[in-house]
Fold this sequence. Notes:
The structure is a single chain. The chain is an alpha+beta fold. It has 16 helices and 18 strands. The radius of gyration is 29 Å and the shape is elongated. GO terms for molecular function: ATP binding; catalytic activity, acting on a protein; lysine-tRNA ligase activity; magnesium ion binding; transferase activity; tRNA binding. Its cofactor is Mg(2+).
Amino acid sequence: MxxxxxxxxxxxxxxxxMKALVDDLNVDPFGHRFDRDSLAADLHxxxxxxxxxxxEENPVEVIIxxxxxxxxxxxxxxxxxxxxxxxxxxxxxxRDDLGDNYPIIKRADLGDFLGIKGTMMKTEAGxxxxxxxHLTHLSKALRPMPxxxxxxxxxxxxxxxxYLDLIANNESLVRFQNRSKIVAAIRxxxxxxxxxxxxxxxxxxxxxxxxxxxxITHHNALNIDMYMRIATELYLKRLIVxxxxxxxxxxxxxxxxxxxxxxxxxxxxxxxxxxxWDFTDVMDETEGIFRAAAKVxxxxxxxxxxxxxIDLSKPFARKHMVDLIKEKTGVDFWPEMTLExxxxxxxxxxxxxxxxxxxxxxxxxFFDNFVEDTLSQPTFVYGHPVEVSPLAKKNxxxxxxxxxxxxxxxxxxxxxxxxxxxxxxxxxxxxxxQAAERDNGxxxxxxxxxxxxxxxxxxxxxxxxxxxxxxxxxxxxTDAASIRDVVLxxxxxxx
Length: 495
């Protein structure tokens, strides 16, 4: 209660200062457009190396604006720190210079936005500073800022009130600036490789393209249930059928699933499809995307994630799932076996399985249990069983497996890709198998998308498809432990 009372006292004091701006100084507490000509970072880049004497001999006038984040001094002189979107710079205000303008900064609180006109100088201590010649009040902060701008340690507050996190934690601000740069770099890379960026429906009449539970809503005018998309895949492949030979989409995906450090109910993916490619071409594409994204944050392509050094400059390893399982466990799934034999192997190695699972499901579970967490350096794991890959083309030499890969780094999946299944008859059989799984208890299995099957019947060329989780990629490149650290407004339980 004492803390709440203190906070309320500060809020009262700030409102009193707001009123005084109007009554005593005739200043609008919530000002108007302000035309600045300089940013803090640019001023540091231009003038940090100049001496005090050089700045005095060649005076430079600047106009800056930002939030006041520190304030020192009283009486006739005040030093303060002003922060804009690029960084922070010190200002120096003297009553003799400002006259009637001086009370504005004297009464300003931490968090207030100020516009400054002044001259570049350096203090005796050598700190680059703007000597203020005129000051404009731009906006009053009616609540106190996070304590001393040393950061917000409470994780809940950081996620619920991201604006405070960005104000107080420069690391968060830089991380989200880097996220935007990463996404821009991916777009630039895709465009340079002749991919066309497109948009597909977020509201769909049938959820497909992934094994996941959808969010369901209702369209009143049509009186039908609709689904928030769980993937962009099936619509993008319709475009390949239509003659758009290389397409991609960076967009929001929605899955009604659990939440943990790697999962948020809404997240961002890149999906791309290229006609006449197979999954080996997509491996090359994926390496190119990862390097393009990494370069904007790590020009040398050397990344440290949570203490693990990762080298993105070298070719990524390429290993078959069955070979990896054999390396880690000694169990060899290459010989053909019955379901009972696979279940016996699972029992011997304490691998749990569902009643409806086939041999391929058990192979995939062995990988999840014994291999996934061990893959630290970038590794393409290919050859997924057909039972867990309903949209991937079967391998020509061994139809038990598909021409599919997942990319693993530091024990996490970062990409999923395959040579697309373009045989509508086989695709229908896969959809029917998925529907049977759903009837047997797998509520994440796909249904039968008749419109997509019809599109395939018009002919889709051999195609390589790719999906990358943008949030996880940003986590990797910015050393973020949780997906909530790279999503500006993560899903939270209401307070």
